[in-house]
Amino acid sequence: MLLVPLRAAHAVSQKITRRYLRPPGSLKEVDFLTACIRCGQCGEVCPNRCIKYFGFDEGVSMKDTPYIVPRVKACILCMKCGDICPTGAIQPVQRLAEHIIANVDMGKARVDENLCLSFQGKTCGVCYRACPLPDIAIRVGMLEQPHVLDQCVGCGLCERSCIQLPQAIKVIPAHTRLG
Amino acid sequence: MDNPPCLITLRRIVLLSVTLSCLSYQSVFAHHVLGRPAYSLNEDSNTPPSMSVETQVGDFFVTYMVFPAFPKATQPGRINLYIQGIDEGRYFNDNVTFLVIDDAFFSNRQEIIGTQNIDDGVYRQGFVFKENGEYLIRAHFEDNEVPYDIDFPLQIGEHSPVKPLVVTVLVLLFTIVGSNLLIGKRAQLAKFRAYRKSET
Amino acid sequence: MMKYLFMRQLNKQRLCCLSLVFLLLIYLPFASIYQNYTAAHAYDLLNSEEKFLYDVMQTLTEPLVNDPVQLDALKGTTWSARIGAYKISDPLAVVSQSSASKSWDTSFALTALVPLLVSLLAGRIFCGWICPATLLYELNTNFALFLNKLGVPIHRWDFDRRLKYAVLILGTLVTMLSGLMILPAIYPPAIVGREIYYVIALDGFSISTIFFVLTLMADTFVAKRGFCRYLCPGGALYSLLGRYRLLRIQRKVSICNDCQRCDSICEFGLHPMSDQFGQECNNCTACIATCPANSLQFHWTPVDQPYQGPGHQGRQYIAANTELIATDARRSCSG
Questions:
Q1: Greatest Cα-to-Cα distance within chain C, rounded to the nearest angstrom
Q2: Which of C239, C255, C272 is at the close of a domain?
Q3: Which has fewest Cβ within 10 Å: A63, B101, C103, C208?
């Protein structure tokens, strides 16, 4: 396990960890880890209290860095964390739709059609209604079946609101995507 | 891009203890935080309570759910396990073996609970625990010759709300502040005496 | 005379300053929780403990701000903070971050400008007046004396003060080579600030608390202020910055009586009585407060005095110079 933390800074895709998102406006994972000074201000200023901090379980490189688990508490894209971050590990982004769409990449939501109620014939649509960028990040088809679009920023509000257990829509974090 | 072979061999035994996320033990009540309803995971809540832990291991997202959320001894319960590939979301299809390990300090009892096939995207494993205690459920499966062992903590019975580390620190702080109040102004004199003693 | 009285009170003021910082570190996480409740407009849905927190925070902050959102004006810890529109950071954070990323971020570096200037001027004053760990370490030193009275053997060893410079250099090198931020993980004020936030606003202490408690115990049983004197990378950095500080304490040899109270009270094991302050002095003014002759004072000068010899009111000097003193006395009586 000692190798994992040392590799983590340079081989991000091999991490063994929980599925997590970085705050909105964060740099790419590799740059983030060397820019974040572990000051804890982003979580302190977050009005939704969705930002938590890693302990030692994920290794030395991740310790005290901020993360969000959307199923527990999703990001409402208030962008206060970017304002307060002293090093720019979280870049400041204006709280306007076009700026957020252009600059925020926490991840991308993905629908699990095996679990999604709308794909089982029961009209749902809760995730669409929870999305702060409806028809930009997600659209619905027949029976409110959700289809995630390219401009999804990965805030996770859809995942948070999904009424299925476990959730039928999940955000795949940006740092997990290979390539 | 393929994972280089050396990393696959390094991942031969992947042992992971996942600390329970806030989902499980937080006593959050029904909330409307910023307009988004939050589901309660309290025993008395309306929404079906369940303990859910999720992790990302190798090529997979693994989600583990337990019904009921707070299992008790002699009460039958069920584990639901979901294994999906990270890249495409494809479901893992082979057998999964479930083991239970006693997580108490000086114990290494373990036994196999069962082996399950995938059933409508889920691996379901029933259990009945005879005694309260802290256990680890290990899900074991193999994908392309790479074995995965994923451990999830499961507590049967009540858990103590008081955290030992917080108690220790509070006691320590209390002792330090208390002794300062007791030694008071004599601290200077004590330092002087200690210094003279160390000089000789 | 008034000046001396003022000087002697400085140590008490310093303890107030340290306590204020500590109290702020406790207040801020509660403010963060309170701001969450107000932003959610969820008062009716809070349980009784949450309501109590809300009510207390509302009572405390209502006289200061019109809207709880204005509490955003003060955030952070001594590692990095935001006060109004200004961000202020520990210089060690700048060293750590630029080593890890192997790049220089000017806007971040500027946030450490004020601490840098203050350290160049007044030396290791952060350690004495602001560091939250200092408060705990100083209380712990007295606790150690208390244990000593009960017969428990305490801090018997001394090591080399230069060790912490090695820690700083090694830590920076490891950070550069591995990209790992290890310095904030071992630096006590950053640890204390974060852990207080974790225990109040998140799930509880992390493993860093255990590390800090171990340093407390090492301070008690191994060496007085062991971490600050021998291991703290931040202390090393501040000491280096304060090498030619302008504000320093010096001894007035003509009124010094060699009583050794200053040497005994110095938390950092310096020797004011031998004019040895050096770059390690954190201007804590404990020696000024304890000197019965008021011979220790602040001066504006970039270097320490060389050793002035035994205090002129002390036994050693008087014994060596009896004739001279007698002659002086006769001369002043007659002429």
A1: 90
A2: C239
A3: C103
Per-residue model confidence (pLDDT) at position C203: 83
Chain B residues close to C209, C-beta within 8 Å: 165, 169
Q: Using the beta-carbon criterion (under 8 Å), do B19 and A55 form an inter-chain contact?
A: yes
Last residue in a domain, options C197, C219, C239: C239
Residue in chain C closest to A86 (alpha carbons) equals C108
Q: What pLDDT, in 10s, does the model give residues C280-289?
A: 999 999 999 9
Query: Which three-class secondary structure state does DSSP give residue C276?
Result: strand
The answer, yes or no, to whether residue A15 has pLDDT greater than 50, is: no
| Residue C134, both tokens | 């200092």
- Above pLDDT 70, what percent of chain C? 99
B97 in Cβ contact with B129 (< 8 Å): no
Contact C249, C299 (CB under 8 A): yes
Range of the domain at C168: 77-239
Give the pTM.
0.86
A87/C193 Cβ within 8 A: no
ipTM value: 0.90
CA distance B52 to chain A (A): 8
In Å, how far is A1's CA from the nearest CA of chain B?
9
**Is there a single domain that holds both residue C155 and residue C196?**
yes
pLDDT < 70: residue spans in chain B: 1-50, 159-162
Alpha carbons C284 and A67: distance in angstroms, whole number: 39
> For residue B175, which residues of chain C lie inside 8 Å, CB to CB?
143
Question: For A40, which of C39, C72, C77 is closest by C-beta distance?
Answer: C77
Same domain, C314 and C217: no
Give the span between the Cα atoms of A107 and A154, in whole angstroms. Answer: 4
Contacts of B188-194 spanning 24+ positions with Cβ under 8 A: B188/C261, B188/C265, B188/C290, B190/C145, B190/C148, B190/C149, B191/C145, B191/C264, B191/C265, B192/C260, B192/C261, B192/C264, B192/C265, B194/C145, B194/C148, B194/C264
Burial label for C162, CB within 10 Å (0-12, 13-18, 19+), is exposed
Upstream peptide bond of C115 is cis (omega within 30 degrees of 0)? no
Residue A44: closest C-alpha in chain C? C32
Q: Which residues pair with A146 in a beta bridge?
A: A140
- Dihedral sign for Cα A153, A159, A161, A162, please: positive
Q: CA A94, CA A77: separation in Å to the nearest integer?
A: 10
Is a pLDDT exceeding 70 seen at residue C145?
yes
Chain B residues 128-157 with a CB less than 8 Å from chain A: none
pLDDT given for residue C270 in this prediction: 93
CB–CB contact A57 B56 (8 Å): no
Report the residue of C26, C97, C113 to disrupt the A interface, i.e. the one with the largest count of A CBs within 10 Å. Answer: C97
Same domain, C127 and C232: yes
Q: Does the beta-carbon distance from B56 to A16 stay under 8 Å?
A: yes
Q: What architecture does CATH give domain B10-156?
A: Sandwich (2.60)
Same domain flag for C254 and C217? no
Please determine, for residue A7, whether its predicted confidence score (pLDDT) is greater than 70. no
At residue A179, the pLDDT reads: 43
